[in-house]
Design goal:
By secondary structure, the protein is mostly helical. It is about 55% helix and about 0% strand.
Length: about 120
């Protein structure tokens, strides 16, 4: 376990996450082992790459944007709703999705709770 601890500490220092070391050192043995296991399972290079991409400028041709159509899930049959959910899961698994922020009650119609 000491070897994993050393690896985790080295990773955390490399990625400037030293504040987590304090938390690990104060934790009980069970939690300490779990935290070390989590640190070793994180792909920090990928996280860093994703973070860096947030600063990239994106070009959006506003002429090509168009409103999206909506579906009221309360008006769908159970089978149709399940079909849509299966399609949605496949789209997400294949990284072929976009995010839309909605206002004016869309959250309610999409069955998103307020908190």
């Amino acid at each position: 376990m000491e070897e994993n601890y050393s690896k985790a500490i080295e990773i955390l220092k490399t990625y400037h996450q030293e504040h987590i070391i304090e938390y690990i050192d104060r934790a009980n043995t069970k939690l300490k082992n779990e935290l070390i296991k989590q640190v070793l399972s994180i792909d920090f290079d990928e996280l860093n790459e994703l973070y860096e991409k947030t600063f990239e400028e994106l070009f959006v041709d506003l002429e090509e944007l168009s409103p999206i159509s909506g579906v009221n899930p309360d008006k769908l049959s159970k089978e149709k709703l399940e079909d849509y959910e299966k399609v949605g899961v496949e789209i997400i698994k294949n990284n072929k999705f976009a995010v839309a922020t909605m206002a004016g009650g869309q959250g309610t119609r999409l069955r998103i709770s307020k908190g």
